[in-house]
Predict the structure.
Amino acid sequence: MLSGGLPRESICAVIGTYGTGKTTFALQFAYEGLSRGESVIYISLEEREELLRATMAQKGWDPERFGDRFYLLRLDPTDFNLAISSIKSELPALIRSVKASRVIIDPISLFEGLFLDEAARRQEMFRFIEVMRDEACTLVLTSETNTANPEGSRYGLVEYLADTVILLRYVRSAGLTEVHLALEVVKMRRSPHSREIKPFEILEDQIMVYSEASLF
């Protein structure tokens, strides 16, 4: 569906409501990079570090065997100054020092929510994305959906700033007897991609996207 994968050093937003697998997608993206010998930075603004490591271990993705190539950090989004400083000022230096080629922020919507003023939020997000474009890494941002618009991010910003937007959603059958998880590649700059909505499953050890299947 992505015609081979995410372009290197691009920015991808994975958007979805609760339970659609945003964090699982992000963890698998991290694990694939680690398995290829890359260094990965994973910043969690929601789940505790030990819970994320336990989730990976449960799926057979043992994070401990990668040693100091895997930097899993949790920031407290309620500590405004620390979270802002860490993401805006310290993250670029950390990326360069560890030569990280993959960076994940999960979820970026909690960072956006630190700015109560919409104009300030937009300005800070644009600045952050511009800074990250100067770093030699592929950035994945997860975001919750907007309750009023299940096809958009919570604040309606990341889908415009990202190069690739992947939307995760629930789809109910016509008879309301089944609920399916579905994936859509909404946008992908400078690369051809599928325009179809495809079902996927979160299995014990991986995410499986059925790119040849139809929803019903």
About this structure: The chain has one domain: 11-167. The two ends are 19 Å apart (CA to CA). The chain has a mean pLDDT of 89. Strands lie at 11-16, 39-44, 70-74, 100-106, 138-146, 149-153, 164-172, 179-188, 197-202, 207-209.
